[in-house]
């Protein structure tokens, strides 16, 4: 997300027509001038002035402008941000959601958020600094070795959450051969958990968690509502 923000900022700053660039990005994210003005806390005429180059965007305005675009996109689960990240080569194939925490959360909090249970017996409960939710079919089939780093976000101390899982074997094999390891693996609603998956989790000393959420949407929503808000609250304190 930070890389998307930087690229939008660069596009405006280095544009021969910054007003047109601002209008372009507002349109890409689907906001009207009135909607953007509400996020910025200004009159819609101010937005119009920037788009018509009657005002020149400084760094303070540019930061608020980009944050407003992202905030608007957040309400729908970041569809535009994800599409931009993929088109820019930032976001790897099969990534549904990537979140970094302001403060770490515990393994028990992750298990509660995914409505899950741990199926292996040998693991270390590490602090978790974020999570990545993956479409397992797309990720395992489409990811190249060097792209594995992109699904790890800013820290490998995170949970990898695999959806569309039948037995959990493929995700654990992928983790086993990956150049860097997550703090935990979550598999969503497998029909059965393969014995090999459990053995690999034990060997890697990482918790393998089965999520019982009824849908992928409810899983993603629960992770955001129960972990992201909690992490932000800790950061405020």
Verbal overview:
The protein is of the alpha/beta class and 237 residues long. It folds into two domains: 84 residues, Orthogonal Bundle (434 Repressor (Amino-terminal Domain)), CATH 1.10.260; 144 residues, HprK N-terminal domain-like (Udp-n-acetylmuramoylalanyl-d-glutamate--2,6- Diaminopimelate Ligase, Chain: A, domain 1, 3-Layer(aba) Sandwich), CATH 3.40.1390.20. It is built from twelve helices and six strands. It has a six-stranded mixed β-sheet, sandwiched between helices. Strand 4, helix 10 and strand 5 form a beta-alpha-beta unit. Helix 1 runs antiparallel to helix 2.
Key terms for this structure?
single chain; 237 residues; alpha/beta; 434 Repressor (Amino-terminal Domain); 2 domains; six-stranded mixed beta sheet
In short:
The protein is of the alpha/beta class and 237 residues long. The protein has helices at residues 2-13, 18-28, 33-40, 44-51, 59-74, 79-87, 107-113, 136-142, 148-151, 169-177, 195-204, 216-236; strands spanning 95-105, 116-118, 128-135, 159-163, 184-188, 208-211. It has a 6-stranded mixed sheet with strand order 1-3-4-5-6-2, with helices on both faces.
Low-confidence stretches: 233-237
CATH structural architecture of the largest domain: 3-Layer(aba) Sandwich
Q: Tell me the series of helices and strands, N- to C-terminal.
A: HHHHHHEHEEHHEHEHEH
Identify the CATH class of the largest domain. Answer: Alpha Beta
CATH topology of the largest domain, which one?
A: Udp-n-acetylmuramoylalanyl-d-glutamate--2,6- Diaminopimelate Ligase, Chain: A, domain 1
Query: What is the makeup of the main sheet?
Result: 6 strands, mixed
CATH homologous superfamily grouping of the largest domain? HprK N-terminal domain-like
Strand content: 15-25%
Shape: elongated
Please compute the radius of gyration using only Cα atoms.
20 Å
Distance between the termini: 25 Å
Mean pLDDT figure: 86
Q: What's the count of strands?
A: 6
Count structural domains.
2
Biggest β-sheet: strands ordered side by side in the sheet: 1-3-4-5-6-2
- The helicity comes to 40-55%
The DSSP helix count reads 12
State the secondary-structure class: alpha/beta
């Amino acid at each position: 997300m930070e890389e998307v923000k930087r690229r939008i900022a660069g596009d405006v700053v280095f544009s021969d027509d910054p007003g047109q660039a601002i209008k372009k990005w507002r349109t890409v994210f689907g906001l009207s001038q009135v909607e953007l003005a509400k996020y910025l806390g200004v009159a819609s005429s101010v937005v119009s002035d920037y788009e018509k180059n009657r005002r020149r965007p400084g760094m303070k305005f540019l930061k608020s402008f980009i944050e407003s675009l992202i905030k608007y996109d957040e309400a729908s689960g970041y569809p535009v941000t994800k599409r931009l990240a993929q088109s820019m080569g930032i976001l790897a194939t099969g990534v549904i959601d990537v979140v970094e925490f302001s403060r770490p959360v515990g393994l028990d909090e992750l298990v509660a958020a995914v409505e899950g249970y741990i199926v292996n017996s040998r693991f270390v409960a590490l602090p978790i600094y974020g999570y990545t939710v993956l479409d397992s079919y797309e990720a395992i089939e489409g990811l190249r070795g060097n792209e594995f780093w992109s699904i790890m976000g800013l820290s490998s101390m995170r949970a990898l959450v695999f959806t569309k899982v039948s037995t959990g074997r493929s995700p654990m094999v992928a983790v086993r051969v990956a150049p860097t390891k997550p703090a935990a693996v979550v598999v969503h609603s497998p029909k059965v958990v393969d014995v090999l998956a459990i053995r690999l989790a034990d060997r890697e000393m990482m918790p393998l968690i089965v999520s019982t959420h009824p849908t992928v949407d409810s899983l993603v929503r629960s992770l955001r509502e129960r972990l992201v808000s909690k992490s932000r609250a800790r950061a405020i304190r």
